[in-house]
Amino acid sequence: MKPTLVSSTLLCVAGALAQHNTSTANGCNNGYYPGTDTVIYTVPYTYQQVLSIIGDYQNLTWSGSPAGSVTLNGTTNTVGTARTYDIAGAHVIETITEYSKPANGPYVEVHTLAPLTVPAANVSFYGDFDGTVVTPTCNGAASTFNFTINFCASNAMVAAQTLHQLHLTDAQTVGVFLGGQNFTSCAALNKSSGTPSLGASPAAATYTGSASTLTGSVMLAGAAALAAVVW
């Protein structure tokens, strides 16, 4: 799938996230520097279809980890549960801090990212805010991902490039799993499906969590797609 343009209806969401999640940017361990990255990507598939791929915290097949390779220390999709896996030379531990999966969206999953090293990129990083939000759009005919992470890294620029590529790859892979169609616009999607077009995309749904986590749409699927990154 080819990368699509950022959905303008979600740009305000990224701003809301920045306002409510600043702890990482306020200080990092010695030798680490603060950074943040956001990927917004729309796929022409329904919210329910997308959740059939990403809706289980232990399943990261869409992010480069084979089935059965991710272990949990608790119940899946539950705050406090950590998942552990190894990918592309990195040992990854991600612990859920926020989780919400309502029937009609938005899907919200936030976790912390324990310190890790990506040997191929010669970079180490960690994050106290790393999450994914999926919001229905185009009258429910499409879904928009928002992956956002605030991190501390040994090289913030390299870490941002690495995280951006892996999150973009994650979103694209979900689309491939669901059929490989590209999103261009709500109007084009509604026309092809025979659904009357309302013109502009509807405003993104809003999730309101604690001030230390998020308001709006967010997130990421962590360093899980490391195997898909092109260094």
**Largest beta sheet: what is the strand line-up?**
1-7-6-5-4-3-2
Mean pLDDT, as a whole number? 79
**SSE pattern, N- to C-terminal:** HEHEEEEEEHH
Give the termini separation.
Answer: 19 Å
Structural commentary:
- The protein is of the alpha+beta class.
- The chain has four helices and seven strands, in the order H-E-H-E-E-E-E-E-E-H-H.
- The protein has helices at residues 11-20, 47-54, 156-177, 186-193, and strands at residues 33-43, 71-72, 82-87, 90-100, 107-118, 123-137, 142-153.
- A seven-stranded antiparallel beta sheet has the order 1-7-6-5-4-3-2.
- It is globular, with a radius of gyration of 17 Å.
- The model is unreliable at 1-25 and 195-231 (pLDDT under 50).
Topology:
Layout: H1 11-20, E1 33-43, H2 47-54, E2 71-72, E3 82-87, E4 90-100, E5 107-118, E6 123-137, E7 142-153, H3 156-177, H4 186-193
Antiparallel strand pairs: 1-7, 2-3, 3-4, 4-5, 5-6, 6-7
Give a short synopsis of this structure.
The chain has helices spanning 11-20, 47-54, 156-177, 186-193; strands at residues 33-43, 71-72, 82-87, 90-100, 107-118, 123-137, 142-153.
Key attributes of the depicted protein:
globular, 231 residues, 7 strands, alpha+beta, 7-stranded antiparallel sheet, 21% helix, disordered N terminus
